[in-house]
UniProtKB/TrEMBL annotation:
Protein name from the UniProt record: GDSL-like lipase/acylhydrolase family protein
GO MF terms, alphabetically ordered: hydrolase activity, acting on ester bonds
Source organism per UniProt: Roseateles saccharophilus (Pseudomonas saccharophila)
Domain of life: Bacteria
Amino acid sequence: MPSVVCTGHEYLGRSQEIEARGPFKYRLLAEGDSWMDRSSLVIPSLPWFLAQEMDNRGLPVLIINLAIAGSELRQLVDIMKGEFVWWLGQFRYDAILLSAGGNDFIDAARDPDPGQGLLLNMAGQPLPADGYACVSQAAKGILEDYLNTDFKQLVDAIRADANNQSTPVFLNCYDTPVARNAPAGPGIGPWLYKAYQKNSIDPSLWPALTQGLFQDIGSVIQGWTGFDGALHAVPTTGVLDAADPASGGSSGDWANEIHPNASGWTKEARIWAGTLVQVLGT
């Protein structure tokens, strides 16, 4: 039988119908940001493409998806006190899929006034040799500390549930985008492009800066796997073809500035499926 991806609300309204489409090899709970929700108004995200890939492997899955585009990890910690914890108590899941941390870095770069967030205000400053020099190391340290604290709370909430004390949790590691003026829709992005412009960062520095920021994101996520032995970072970095910096729309494997398109998700889904099978078996 084919896989099913549904929101929590959809499952509650159609649970008998959905369960009748089984049996499912794996029952998965997805939570997090837009990489678990959707790339744009017309392109879904990982769960839908992962379901297709699992069907291709003859391993149908049921994915109950709680993700909300734009969510930061600190918001997920608040959410875990309600919907997420409730859903944890409903089933013993074969795995939990989580995408978190990326928005926290991006928002810390984009939202504050110039020089007051993750990025230094480079207005009137000499051009550094390396774009990564535009990152405030003090702000990065504060950001990483709160991310680690919040993620530990999230893990503790999962492990406190009797059904899911040892359930594997798979962590999205994102991939490195190209900073460009490519929004996801009216009033939705771009993200890095706006952050860099706000802080007067020369475009020649953008590639190295973006590379450094996403290496930092990856390092934080890899560090989370040390909290317990059932946390797995999915190796999604270096998978996608880069976008053309001059493009304002879909380019390479990217639908917009920071989200994959269908070809990108197909590649990412293969990596995710392979990692799931490696850990969970067939």
